[in-house]
Amino acid sequence: MDAEKKAVKKVSYGELVAKLLDSLAVCVDEEKEGRTTISSKDAKILRKELIAAEKESLVVSKDTLLNWAFLVHDFNRIHVFGDYAREKGFETTPLHGTLIAAGYEMYVRRVCEAIYKITGKGLVYSGQAVKLREPSYTRRYLKGGVSWCLENIVKTDAGIDLAVSGINSKKQRAVSFYHTQLRNELEKPDSDFVTPFTVPGNVIERSNIEIKKGEREASYYCLGKKPREEILMMHPASFIVSTVLKLSSRRTGSPEGKYMSMDLNFHNIPGLGIFETMIRLPKPPRKAEGYFIYVFDAYCVQNDMPIVSGRVTCSSEKEIKLD
Fold first, then answer.
1. What angle is formed at CA 125 by the lines to CA 119 and CA 131, rounded to 5 degrees?
2. How would residue 4 be classed by pLDDT, with cut points 50, 70 and 90?
3. Number of domains within the chain
4. What are the φ/ψ torsions at residue 138 (nearest 5 degrees)?
5. Domain extent at residue 58
6. What is the pLDDT of residues 289-317, one digit of tens each?
7. What is the largest CA-CA distance in the chain?
8. Residue 305: which CATH number?
9. Which of 24, 31, 84, 247 has the smallest CB count inside 10 Å?
10. pTM for this prediction
């Protein structure tokens, strides 16, 4: 943990903006064939917009934690009951990794909006990989909220990838969003973005969870944001984690399973209604420091259309009998 407690080393924003513009084929104050041109004034405005986006902290209350748990059907007793959490050594119910990821989604949306406003380049939020530094975050560790630190930008065939950290008030890295995929809006998507897919392999757990009218707005209120028309991608994506935790609790009789990382792909835009989540039988676990580490492949669909797919890595003190 010593390395994780060190303050995040910030890359200069001048360098980051230059990498971003180059990745998007945008020039400043010069014209080149096949590239978009913006003024140096607009480049400075983009820099200011990106800095402002970082400062929008996610600050949550005890009530927020409970509201989020019920919205995403995360009924792990540590996340819901303060007395039980204290019995297990927490000062109160710990923060949910999925809630932090939803707060991060709002940051990504603001970044995309700033890029479009200044450059005219439309980007689609199409996936992210998340590493949780502490699977059960204490409120004390994240006192003052979680803000964001853009660390790197990489050009890809489909668009760009962002490497971003969620940091606490002491500038310590709490969460790593090390692979955030922003796909060019005009880039032709893979076929599974627009057509139903067949879930391969053995499905060992399913859930059917509905996002009802009013719950879309409630998810934004949990983040301290004004509701938007679209449903947060992390709302149905969180059903994957909740279903994995439900599987762990049901098979072991213990609610203490922890998720350590999420690698998610976003396919189609979700709407109100029922989402079916399916968890595949994983490979045998590996054992590390007294824990069993499981990697689950998961799929979330709505009306047979793919919404989210990905992989969740979890740890459990007990071995889970799955077959």
1. 125
2. very low
3. 1
4. -85, 150
5. 2-316
6. 778 888 999 999 999 899 999 999 887 77
7. 65
8. 3.10.129.10
9. 31
10. 0.88
